[in-house]
């Protein structure tokens, strides 16, 4: 009973509706879909800006979709993450205004994409990152465009797994990544304050009933395989992480890099909201490597 409860909290899909569209923000877009290498169908928006540079956004996990986070239906996570809805279309708006197009897609088991199992905190979702990059790089409008990754929490875990486990060298125009708040599963679970017996029960249930193993270093061994300049963004007051782990991630990067340490409210979602309202450092980094 306890194991299923903990497992459901961490890996059960269906808590991430697409609750708004780019129309609300005055953005031109089209609905798109594409398949990952294992046949999973992914759903997204291609938000239209310039044709010479495009951002691929990969969102955070379980509680999120391509458009962000809504408090509705979130139960105990309603105020634990942030105090209001988080609108990723805010940063899509300033990216488009700056001449970027943006592919915003739902990873598997999120939003309107195919639900085929359980959230794996980036391991299986790495295939979705590759599929999104392939979709953009083969799109007739963007075939020659420079590409950047905006990878948020589990999205950056999926991106990091992809660099270590997939053929990312095929994407010749991939120029940079913004890694927003890297987080391994084990630290997140500990930060929730669950006693060890519940954590262990959840891990046993994941392994025996859902064929998922979530512990240890997760994506950290693959950070060394990242091949593009990377900006890491982290809230120093984030209560759901371990800053030594974030520093380990940063130190392992073997590319041009920068760590932007913010001092925000003591909630993890503060950084996700901040990204939508602070274009200067985001655009400064992207313009440096994508123009």
Write a structural description.
With 291 residues, this protein is α/β, with parallel strands linked by helices. It has helices at 2-11, 77-81, 89-97, 126-138, 154-165, 185-191, 196-209, 243-252, 269-277, 279-290; strands spanning 29-35, 41-47, 53-58, 68-69, 86-87, 101-105, 146-152, 174-180, 230-235, 257-262. The chain has a single domain (2-290), classed as Alpha/Beta hydrolase fold, catalytic domain (Rossmann fold). Strand 7 (146-152), helix 5 and strand 8 (174-180) form a beta-alpha-beta unit. The model has no long low-confidence stretch (mean pLDDT 90).
Span from first to last CA? Answer: 54 Å
Number of individual domains: 1
Write down how many β-strands occur, each being a DSSP E stretch of 2 or more residues: 10
The amount of helix comes to 25-40%
| Overall average pLDDT | 90
Tell me the CATH superfamily: Alpha/Beta hydrolase fold, catalytic domain
CATH architecture classification? 3-Layer(aba) Sandwich
CATH class: Alpha Beta
Radius of gyration: 18 Å
Strand order of the largest sheet: 1-2-6-3-7-8-9-10
Tell me about the biggest sheet?
8 strands, mixed
Unreliable sequence segments: none
Please tally the helical runs, counting DSSP H or I stretches of 4 or more residues. Answer: 10
CATH topology: Rossmann fold
Would you tell me the structural class of the helices and strands? alpha/beta
Give the topology string: H per helix, E per strand. Answer: HEEEEHEHEHEHEHHEHEHH
The shape, in one word, is: globular
Percent of sequence in beta strands: 15-25%
